[in-house]
Amino acid sequence: MCTRYIAPEVGDIERHWQLGARNPPPWAPEIYPRYLGPFIRAARDQALFERELVVGLWSLVPWFAKSARLAYPTSNARAEELAAKASYKQPWARGQRCVIPARAFYEPCWETGRHVPWCMRRADGAPWGLAGLWNRWVDPASGEVVESYTMLTLNADAHPLMRRMHRPDPKRPPDRQDKRSVIPIADADVDLWLAAPPAQAATLLRLPAPELFDAAPAPAAPRP
User: Fold this and answer.
1) Cα 90 from chain centroid?
2) Which CATH number is 117's domain given?
3) Which SS3 state, helix, strand or coil, does residue 91 take?
4) Is residue 223 part of a domain?
5) Which of 50, 57, 91, 175 has the smallest set of CB atoms within 10 Å of its CB?
6) pTM
């Protein structure tokens, strides 16, 4: 589970993902659940496919929510459960997929017996484009439109790096801890991820190669 990442500046996102300038609302450099952050999706209400940059809440608000402030976390979604989980099955079926730009993301390593944050950057210096789902929710009381998104994860018990992250569960064997990893979408696969049918998009849900990472311990996170 990822609960902290660094978003690129708007100009860097527009250049890397070849987006037109749209003057989106600002976001904080470090993003935590329920913060506003940028994501890229297939443009709505366009006859031809086009990418668009949107700013929304990092905690997906499902269609059935009574309020945008939920009593349960939706900043991360298990990719293995997308077709069945109530909060995510409708966006998944509708193809509401997105790419979440990140200069780096953070994960907790517990190998020393305590929480040590690690910063995960790309070894080539490029930004991550992380797989996500988005939703547009309308407040039934006020009519306010809330854009929101969630970050997808996969089981990483066999991954050389990501299996080292997160607090171990003493009740589970080492090979069944359900450690999680975010899912990068390669630049060449962005349009496929955003526009393909769900079955085809699902083929892009795979763990990142270890050589993609520049990973190291980082300073403790400031209190959000």
Assistant:
1) 17
2) 3.90.1680.10
3) helix
4) no
5) 175
6) 0.95
In a domain, 78, yes or no: yes
Q: Which residue has the tokens 């297939």?
A: 42
Angle among Cα 201, 211, 3 to the nearest 5 degrees reads 65
pLDDT band at 40 (very low <50, low <70, confident <90, very high): very high
Question: What kind and span of H or E run contains 10?
Answer: helix 10-16
203 touches 64 (CB < 8 A): no
What local confidence, expressed as pLDDT, does residue 117 receive? 95
Phi, psi (rounded to 5 degrees) for 61: -100, 110
The number of domains in the chain is: 1
Residue 103: inside a domain, yes or no? yes
Predicted pLDDT at 142? 93
* Residue 158 is assigned to a structural domain of this protein: yes
pLDDT digits (tens, 9 = 90+) for 148-198: 999 999 999 999 999 999 999 998 988 889 999 999 999 999 999 999 999
Q: Which domain holds residue 155?
A: 5-217
